[in-house]
Amino acid sequence: MKIALLLLLCCACCGPASAAGDGSARLVIAYAHDVAALSQTAASAPREAAYEEYAAAVTSTTVQAPAAVPAKPAASVPAAPAGLVTAAEMHQRGLEALQASKETEAVEWFRKAAVLGNAGAQYGLGLMYAAGRGGLRKDEAQAADWYRKAAEQGEANAQNVLGLMYAEGRGRLPKDMARAAEWLRKSAAQGNPYAPANLERLGIKK
Questions:
Q1: What is the pLDDT of residues 154-175, one digit of tens each?
Q2: 107-114 contacts: CB < 8 A, separation 24 or more?
Q3: Domain 2-64+87-202's class?
């Protein structure tokens, strides 16, 4: 489960994978089954089997630096004061803590970065709330709120999951197919590989 969460968060940083066999990308499907699946009656056995299969496929995967981490500032841009940790660095520390199975520490870093507006951390914190990990009580309403914050900043994975939650009326969100379509289309427009399938499954024109 820790591997699944970690790779989902890495997927948020590194963008959707282009290869169908990419383990971290396929884990998004496992998450959709576990947290935001359209069918609440989905069998738990296939879901757990999916986690095990995907986790086994990517056990050698390491944490990658988030795409949001900027290169060295140009000479004309003042460098950050020594010792100052940016939101992107906080997010990265959260990923590293999660890789080390320090889920509570990971949540602390995600929250710090999320409050500062880091979209990847907001999505990550939403995942932790949705799964009830890192000392958090499982809370789909909190998860939906953080997904929304990330989605509004253009985080494609968050847009996809938020669309599914609107379609299902989960996380205290109203069941709203218009909003579901809006977020899924935005996610699809950014190249998220699962949003088009979700649109089709819901019978929404792309």
A1: 999 999 999 999 999 999 999 9
A2: 107/133, 107/134, 107/135, 107/136, 112/87, 113/87, 113/88, 114/146, 114/149
A3: mainly alpha
